[in-house]
């Protein structure tokens, strides 16, 4: 694991895990708001419901490009990764850098916003 990934891991996984539950809940709540503002026009969190992009229900732990009935670019279908917090963060920071040819054009430049969105998506996986 290189230094960049280690710092990202600490920001996304370790620091929130060490915070009090109320702080983590606020991050997830902020993430839900940000998700609705930035992501919900193309994605839903309802299982089995795809929009322009695939449902993000159960994203954490799921293989990329694997939602039945969703439209993916060929490069996304070929991507051999399982989504975790670090990969979600990297992808939404710059989708086309991670997956050249992806059809996703929206990026989230702010690291805190990405961490909050990731906390929200990870919370959905835990709730299911």
Can you characterise this structure?
- By secondary structure, the chain is mainly α.
- It has one domain (3-127): Orthogonal Bundle (Cytochrome Bc1 Complex, Chain D, domain 2).
- It is 54% helix and 0% strand.
- It has 6 helices and no strands.
- The chain has helices at residues 3-18, 21-38, 74-78, 85-93, 95-98, 111-127.
- The longest helix is centred in the first third of the chain and has 18 residues, at 21-38.
- It is globular and about 30 Å long.
- The protein starts with a helix and ends with a helix.
- Residues 18-24 have low confidence and may be disordered.
Concise summary:
With 128 residues, the protein is an all-alpha fold.
Low-confidence stretches: 18-24
Instruction: Indicate the overall shape.
Output: globular
Q: Which architecture would the CATH scheme give at its second level? A: Orthogonal Bundle
- Kindly provide the name of the CATH class: Mainly Alpha
Strand content: under 5%
Distance N terminus to C terminus?
30 Å
Strand runs, count: 0
Find the CATH topology: Cytochrome Bc1 Complex, Chain D, domain 2
Helix proportion:
40-55%
What is the H/E string?
HHHHHH
The largest pleated sheet is described as: none
Q: Can you tell me the number of structural domains?
A: 1
Figure out the total of helices. 6
Radius of gyration: 14 Å
């Amino acid at each position: 694991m290189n230094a960049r990934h280690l710092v990202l891991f600490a920001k996304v996984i370790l620091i929130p895990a060490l915070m009090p539950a109320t702080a983590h809940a606020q991050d997830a709540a902020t993430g839900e708001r940000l998700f609705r503002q930035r992501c919900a026009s193309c994605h839903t969190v309802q299982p089995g419901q795809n929009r322009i992009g695939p449902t993000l229900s159960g994203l954490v732990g799921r293989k990329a490009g694997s939602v039945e009935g969703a439209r993916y670019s060929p490069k996304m279908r070929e991507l051999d990764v399982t989504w975790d917090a670090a990969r979600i963060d990297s992808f939404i920071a710059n989708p086309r850098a991670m997956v050249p040819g992806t059809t996703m054009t929206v990026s989230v430049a702010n690291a805190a916003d990405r961490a909050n969105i990731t906390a929200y998506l990870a919370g959905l996986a835990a709730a299911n």
